[in-house]
From TrEMBL:
This is Methionine aminopeptidase 2. Cotranslationally removes the N-terminal methionine from nascent proteins. The N-terminal methionine is often cleaved when the second residue in the primary sequence is small and uncharged (Met-Ala-, Cys, Gly, Pro, Ser, Thr, or Val). Its EC number is 3.4.11.18. Residues 101-305 form the Peptidase M24 domain. Belongs to the peptidase M24A family. Methionine aminopeptidase eukaryotic type 2 subfamily. Substrate binds at residues 164, 272. It comes from Furculomyces boomerangus. Pfam families: Peptidase_M24 (PF00557). Residues 1-52 are annotated as: Disordered. InterPro entries: Creatinase/aminopeptidase-like, Met_Aminopeptidase_Type2, Pept_M24, Pept_M24_MAP, Pept_M24A_MAP2, Pept_M24A_MAP2_BS, WH-like_DNA-bd_sf, WH_DNA-bd_sf. CDD domains: MetAP2 (cd01088). It comes from the Eukaryota. Its cofactor is Mn(2+); Fe(2+); Co(2+); Zn(2+).
Length: 416
């Protein structure tokens, strides 16, 4: 396609030229943008809004690799190998079986969020935003039982709410110009979950907050590695995060790492798999290990830097620490709890879900049953996590794989 001047012509036209469909023009613009940013991760022909499955965009089923980083203090890698040699070694690597699945999920994430960034605007309802992200995810990943689908409910936490809010049925909250919105969504292929989040604002006064958190997350990603102690990562994240401050409406606020929120490791179908990556200094000397997958996420706040559970719950997940036998031995005296548990097991397994996902399955009058499952420890509830009202929390998050020879930031895009 043409050069810059012809592309600006395309932009300025309200009506497509005769014989050229709107989709073709959108694709042409996407291609222009692609060559401009020189980013090989952008697919060649995606529609707007996105509808083409990723498997169709990569017919040979080799999905783009994420950002490759050397491990910290690994000078041998820096000096000994050039990019081609690293590529060759990667091919020999038997290490990480689900890597291509994870890359496919990551490509879905990048394409869905590219659309989300355009779609999300003040005036939209939280419900329409969640549905837009989830519908696009289902199409692009070709949702199919436990083989591919949504990794967890779309987090759309606002302002002082740091995490775990997604609308329930009847929610009529509308996004406002002055809001700070965290968009946290997940995609899985064969249980390999890509967990990645970003923050959107519509007023440049929040820029410093976003810059701090983006910097802190990238610091955590850089610091991560095989044999690295979790406490050391937390300390580095905090140091970077808290080197920032922000002036809002004439008052200066320090930006604090939210001390009781953490990154986490991810196992197949299990979003939080036991290890926590702190974002403040602490004394957890547990080490990261080869072939582990981690979600590195940081939260910066103008408030206390401490969250508490507050508000109506939307997020749930079946406990991954109980065996089916242990679950069967728990007497459930509410019949609805039993049928609901059957539905949860069949549709989500241990993947997190929200009330809207139960609604779309046709489940009705399930709140008492759900509460019974939560009370019996079979299902864990995840209520919204909130700092003090009036404060602002931002979040950025990436999923990384600790491959034997290098670290892969699978969810990296040209946006964050
Ligand atoms: Co996460």
């Amino acid at each position: 396609m043409g050069d810059n001047s012809s592309s600006s012509e395309v932009h300025s036209k309200d009506q497509p030229a005769e014989g050229v469909s709107k989709v073709e023009i959108i694709d042409a613009i996407a291609e222009e943008n692609e060559s401009e940013s020189d980013n090989p991760k952008v697919a060649e022909v995606q529609t707007d809004p996105p509808t083409i499955p990723i498997t169709k965009l990569y017919p040979n089923q080799n999905y783009p690799e994420g950002e490759i980083q050397q491990y910290p203090n690994d000078d041998t890698m820096k000096t000994k190998f050039n990019k081609d040699e690293i590529k060759r070694l990667e091919k020999q690597e038997i290490g990480f079986e689900g890597l291509n699945d994870m890359r496919r999920a990551a490509e879905v994430h990048r394409q869905v969020r590219r659309h989300a960034r355009e779609f999300i605007k003040p005036g939209k309802t939280m419900t329409s935003i969640a549905e837009s992200i989830e519908n696009a995810t289902r199409l692009l990943v070709e949702e199919k039982g436990f083989e591919a689908g949504i990794g967890f409910p779309t987090g759309l936490s606002l302002n002082h709410v740091a995490a775990h809010y997604t609308p329930n049925a009847g929610d009529n909250i509308v996004l406002k110009q002055e809001d700070v919105l965290k968009v946290d969504f997940g995609v899985h292929v064969n249980g390999r979950i890509v967990d990645s989040a970003f923050t959107m604002t519509f007023d440049s006064k929040y820029d410093k907050l976003l810059e701090a958190v983006r910097d802190a997350t990238n610091t955590g990603v850089k610091a991560a590695g095989i044999d690295v102690r979790l406490c050391d990562i937390g300390e580095q994240i905090q140091e970077v995060m808290e080197s920032y401050e922000i002036e809002l409406n004439g008052k200066t606020y320090p930006i604090k790492s939210v001390r009781n929120l953490c990154g986490h490791n991810i196992a197949p179908y299990i979003i939080h798999s036991g290890k926590s990556v702190p974002i403040v200094k602490n004394n957890d000397t547990t080490r990261m290990e080869e072939n582990e997958v981690f979600a590195i996420e940081t939260f910066g706040s103008t408030g206390r830097g401490l969250v508490v559970e507050e508000g109506v719950c939307s997020h749930y997940a079946k406990s991954s620490s109980l065996t089916q036998q242990q679950i069967n031995s728990i007497p459930l005296r509410v019949p609805r709890a039993k049928s609901l548990l059957g539905s949860i097991t069949k549709n989500f397994g241990t993947l997190p879900f929200c009330r809207r996902y139960l609604d779309r399955l046709g489940e009705e009058k399930y709140l008492l049953g759900l509460k019974t499952l939560v009370d019996n420890g079979i299902v864990q509830d995840y209520p919204p996590l909130c700092d003090i009202p009036g404060s602002y929390v931002a979040q950025f998050e990436h999923t990384i794989v600790l491959r034997p020879g290098c670290k892969e930031v699978v969810s990296r895009g040209d946006d964050y």
